[in-house]
Amino acid sequence: MESFCKPDPTTVMGAKKDRYSNIGNDGLPIIGAKLQGGDVMIGKTVSLNTSDNLMTRHTHKDISHTMKSSDNGVIDKVMVSTNLDGEKFVKIRTRSVRIPEMGDKLASTHGQKGTIGLIMPQEDMPFTRDGISPDIILNVHAIN
Length: 144
Known about the structure:
Elements: E1 2-4, E2 12-13, E3 34-35, E4 40-42, E5 44-47, E6 60-62, E7 65-66, E8 73-82, E9 88-95, E10 105-107, E11 113-115
Parallel strand pairs: 2-6
Antiparallel strand pairs: 1-5, 3-8, 4-7, 5-6, 8-9, 10-11
C-alpha cells in the first residue's frame, strides 16, 4: 500500500538524509521551494510485510521521487488528481531561470516561433535622444 507522506527515518527503511526540507507533511512539495539535484520532490512510502520484518523497527520503505542530479529549479505548480482506478497521482511543474543564448528557440502562447539570431552588448544597441535603448528587437513580419 503506497501513501504520500513525509517519511519518518525511525520507521522508514531507506530514508534519504537531509533531502525532505522542501516537502510538507502530506508528502507534496511546497510551492516556491528551490530544489537542487537529489532533493525529494514527492514523499512516498510503501508498507512492508510485517511478517518478514519481525526483527526490524521499519514498517515502511521509502520510494520518494527525487529531482534528477543534473537539474535544479523552483516548484511552480502542484496538481493532485485521481485516475479511473481511484489511485491518487501528482503532477509537478518546475521552472528555472536561464540566460538566453544564440540559437535558442522562443514561442508565444499563440504558436509564433522565433530563434535568437544575435545578442549584442547594451552599448551597441540603438538609443533615443534621452538614452533609452530597447531590450529586444523583433522583426515585425514574424508576428501575424
